[in-house]
Amino acid sequence: MKDTKQQWFKDAKYGLFIHWGLYSILAGEYKGRKTDRIAEWIENDFDIPVEDYEKLAEQFNPTGFDADAFVKRAKEQWGMKYIVLTAKHHEGFAMYDSKVSDFNVVKATPYGRDILKELQLACEKYDVKMGFYYSQAQDWDDPNGYMHRKDNSQRDFQKYFDEKCKPQVKELLENYGDICLIWFDTPMGITVAQTQELIDLVKSIQPDCLLSGRTGNHMGDYMTTGDNYIPRLPYEGDWEVPATVNDTWGFNKFDTNWKSADHILSLLLKIVSRGGNYLLNVGPTADGIVPEKCVEVLNEVGKYVTENGEAIYGTRPLGVYAYEIPGIEFTGREHKLYVHVLSPRIRIELMNVGNRLTGAYLVSSGQKLEYRFMKSCEGDSMIEVELPEELHNKKNYCVCLELEEEEPIFESIKG
Ligand code: JFZ
Question: How many Å separate Cα 22 from the centre of its chain?
Answer without folding.
Answer: 21
